[in-house]
Every structure is written in structure tokens, then in C-alpha cells.
Design goal:
- The protein is an alpha+beta fold.
- The chain starts with 18 loop residues before the first strand and ends in a 6-residue tail after the last helix.
């Protein structure tokens, strides 16, 4: 493995000035967003946050996230980083903090005034120079929630839980999921992107039932486009006895997105957390993440 480069100070987006790298922990209701990534003419989470931060600091800035969630997907544990020109940061937040007050509490409060109700920055902190929200991550955690109640979903949860008013065999779903865990090529579960690898280390896929609420917990080193909803959709086919348990394992032999199942609706999916190594291991982790994944 290559030796990690020494940490270097981040620079402003135009590369001309010293900058301070900040980590932002973010939550949002994805219902009215066309996903995370900035898209021309679309309301996106990154677009709204970039605009708010640029307004606060009076200079263009750009966020980079741990996971670029799709249209309609929610988050309670999204993580992003942003490089703020040191002069802009000092000018805007040079006041003396009260004892024990987080360094960027005032920024968090001010930013809240510029953001719509469906996106919140929960916490802001100073990041290590080698911290990269995407490439430093060890794993991402998602939860997918369904209601099997005959009436669907109670109105208070309707934006975050998928109505699935049909019986599900949770034991069969758990067995099928065990065949999928590990380092595999998940091409059958990913929407194709030219030049992008579909090899991933799926570390957790299990199911919990609490009355009518069924929750899938899904964790991996990374996820390709539409992978989580596709995994859930395939396993639900097993849970309804439309497919047998071994069928999910057979899908791992495919080299393209399978048309034998439908991805689960976006509304039930939430990014709930991202794990990172200690600061002194961030550079090494970035190198590992960038290397092409190969199955054993």
C-alpha cells in the first residue's frame, strides 16, 4: 500500500488562499429534494446548503458529502466537509466564546436562520487537514423502514416509512440477506455508471420487526447508485415468497443491473450514520478507499 502523504492545509475553493476545513453533521427530510448533489434547475440538499453557507461567509463555498443520497432519501446522520477561507471565517466569527461553548455554536445558530425547515446542520466542528467526508469514511449506515399494517402508515410517519400492507416472512428475508453480506460485485443491485466499480463490502443487512414496523439495517464501506433500495427490494421479493432464498445469492453472479425485481421506494430510506477512523489514520484510509476494490 502506498504511504499516506503528509497532511496539508486546505485551500479555498479557488485555490488561492489558506482555508479552514469544517465538518458538518446534517439531517434532512428528502421528500422535496432531488437528492443531495447539485443539479441545474433542481432543488437539492447540497445546493441549498452551499447557498446558505456562501451567504453567511460572503464567498462561494462547496460542500462534499459522505453519501450522495438519491431523490426522496432522508438523512439523520449525513456528514460533509467544506473549506472556508480563513479570513472569511475570522471576520465572521472572531468574537470570544463563553467557557465551554462549542467553537462554532454561533455559526450553527446563524446558519439555521438561512436554511429551510427540511434541512438542518446539527453540529459544526474544525476537521483535521486530511479529513474527507467521502473518502475518509470507513462505512455508511442506512435504515429502511416499512409498515405492514393493513391501513398503511400513520400520517405522522408517512414521509419516512413505506407502506407495505402485505405479509412478510422475516426469517426467510434474514436468511437471504446473510448470503449477500461480504465483499462482492453488486452489479445486479446498482444502476450502471460508466467506469464506476460495483464491488462493495456489505457488512450488515438484517431485519427487525416491531409490531407492524419492519426495519432493515444496512451497512457497507460504500454504496453505489441505488444499491440500498435495490437490496431491500430484492429481499422483499423473498419475504413475499415470490422468490426463494437462494435467488438473492444467484444475483451476485450478474454483471449488470437485474430487471427481476424493483427497487424499494425512496421514502423509507434514511442515512443514519457514517464512521471514520482516528485523525492519524485519515490519510491511509483515503488511499484505501480510492483503490479499486477487488473481491477475494
Amino acid at each position: 500500500m502506498r504511504t499516506p502523504r503528509p497532511p496539508r492545509a486546505p485551500t479555498s475553493p479557488d485555490g488561492t488562499a489558506e482555508a479552514v476545513r469544517l465538518r458538518l453533521d446534517i439531517a434532512y427530510d428528502g421528500t422535496e429534494f432531488a437528492g443531495w448533489a447539485v443539479q441545474a434547475g433542481q432543488r437539492t440538499v447540497a445546493g441549498v446548503l452551499d447557498d446558505a453557507l456562501s451567504t453567511v461567509f460572503r464567498t462561494p463555498v462547496r460542500l462534499f458529502a459522505a453519501g450522495r443520497t438519491d431523490t426522496g432519501v432522508h438523512a439523520t446522520g449525513q456528514v460533509a466537509h467544506v473549506d472556508i477561507p480563513a479570513a472569511a471565517l475570522k471576520h465572521a466569527y472572531s468574537r470570544t466564546r463563553r467557557d465551554g461553548e462549542p467553537e462554532f455554536l454561533a455559526l450553527t445558530r446563524r446558519l439555521a436562520r438561512f436554511l429551510p425547515a427540511d434541512v438542518r446542520v446539527l453540529e459544526i466542528g474544525r476537521a483535521a487537514p486530511d479529513f474527507d467526508a467521502r473518502f475518509s469514511a470507513l462505512r455508511r449506515h442506512y435504515a429502511y423502514r416499512l409498515s405492514t399494517a393493513p391501513y398503511g402508515v400513520v400520517p405522522q410517519l408517512a414521509r419516512y416509512v413505506t407502506a407495505w400492507p402485505r405479509q412478510l416472512d422475516i426469517d426467510a428475508m434474514a436468511e437471504a440477506s446473510r448470503h449477500l453480506v461480504g465483499l462482492h460485485d453488486f452489479a445486479a443491485f446498482c444502476r450502471h455508471r460508466e467506469g464506476a466499480t460495483t464491488i462493495r463490502d456489505l457488512q450488515r443487512l438484517d431485519w427487525v420487526r416491531d409490531g407492524d414496523l419492519v426495519t432493515a439495517h444496512v451497512s457497507a464501506d460504500a454504496f453505489c447508485w441505488s444499491m440500498v433500495r435495490s437490496l431491500v427490494g430484492a429481499v422483499l421479493a423473498v419475504g413475499e415468497h415470490r422468490r426463494d432464498v437462494a435467488w438473492c445469492a444467484d444475483l451476485l453472479n450478474a454483471d449488470r443491473r437485474s430487471s427481476d425485481f424493483t427497487a424499494a421506494p425512496a421514502r423509507g430510506l434514511t442515512l443514519v450514520g457514517v464512521d471514520y477512523p482516528p485523525d492519524d489514520q485519515l490519510g491511509a484510509r483515503t488511499i484505501i478507499t480510492r483503490d479499486l476494490r477487488k473481491p477475494s
